[in-house]
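Hi again,

Forgot to attach this to my earlier email, sorry! This is the prediction with protoporphyrin IX containing FE bound. I've pasted everything inline since the attachment limit keeps bouncing my files.
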Amino acid sequence: MANSYHQERSLVPPIPQGCPINSDWSPLSPEYLDDPFTISAELAKDPVFYAQSLNYLVVNDMDLVQSIFLDHETFASTNVQDPVFPLCPAASEQLALPDFDPVAVMSNRPEPDHGRIRQFTKSLFSNRRLRELEPYIRSRSHELIDEMLAAGTTAEFISAFAYPLPGEVVFRFIGFPESDDAQLKDWCRERKAFSWGKPSEDQQVKIAKDIVAYWRYCRDFTASKKENPGQDLASELIANWRDNPDKLTYREVESIVYGISFAGHEPVTAALGNALLCLLPDRTQWEELVADPSLIPNAVEEVMRYESSQISWRRVTTVNTTLGGFEIPAGTSVFLNFAAANFSSELFDEPFRFDIHRQNANRNISFGKGVHFCLGSRYAKFEIKVMLEVLVERIPSLRLIEGQTLQRFPNITFRGPEELLVAWG
Ligand code: HEM
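Structure tokens for the complex follow:
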């Protein structure tokens, strides 16, 4: 179906002539999942290369990445929610069910529809709405920290704080009932594997079934808000649709709920874990934040540069074009390597130094650029800022437990520790 939310890749055009080919590198290898930044610095000797493990063209150079984001007509975003690898027939069958019909709405919808839809979604991320969220973010942060402190002097930070909290915040923002939080978080984890990972055939079938259930849930939830509106994003979107039925379709409203219910927390959970990984080993910078929390917003920018929770994003060429001096056929899938671009030595002085005072840390590319620039970037940074403010206030002696081995969810884009052991006192 045209504009369906997740599509299987149908075309792998020939490798661009003369382009360097890398047959070894995989973004899913344990070494890369562990440290994509050092490996990307090596890869970046080629601003552009062809990765045989993905059949994608990889772009490492910050200027090229930005120029691709800015040329949305040549480099479409239509593939950003698609599975990276082919699905098995039994999984495809699930997604072909007639009532699995979410449509591309934001990140994966081309112009001019994207602009039309974004206009109705943008208004939902106003300063007023952010301010209204703050008391909830603060009080839930305090409650979760109370529980951590009451349980002893050590904790697994992701399950205790970073995993539940961003979900709870965006789910209240959207209007989902609290009773569904855990189920929604589970479905989103599967969606991450589905669109950005390489699940086995058995896993694919289970995930595909769960994604269908997740979509049905979003549709039922939107229908319930149509009947009983509240003070939430879903109700406001429905009101926008009622006022402008010729400009926004009801299926698009349902699909925005499906989209934001994922985008609004997965990378925030990861960013919180990454923030502690950046800040806690270097006591000096952590102590500075404890002494002066007004430094937190720039520290968040530096975390997003140095250890971003999204280390790649995708595009696909709509026409034959040139890139980095090579002729690229239409239909070529492109992997924008943020893990290389955010360490550009032309843009960032001593890029491998983590520095909460870095003047231009906000020039990182982790939220994209151009027409699809992350709609939730202010929301995400605000949320991470508030959570870090509560953490430095409540547990100034927070530290990482030494000697732990970190695991990361195997996927090409989202990056954060699965578990993080911390201690205090
Ligand atoms: C640290 C957290 C986050 C990161 C790193 C991140 C990153 C990104 C990136 C890279 C894109 C694609 C940009 C492009 O193609 O130019 C994007 C798009 C988007 N993000 Fe985020 N995001 C984060 C948090 C959020 C949150 C909290 C929300 C919502 C509450 C959100 C909603 C969206 C939406 C709706 C889009 C699609 C925008 C469009 O296509 O017009 N994101 N994000």
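Residues 21-423 form a domain with the Cytochrome p450 fold (CATH 1.10.630.10). The mean pLDDT is 96.

That should be everything now.

G.
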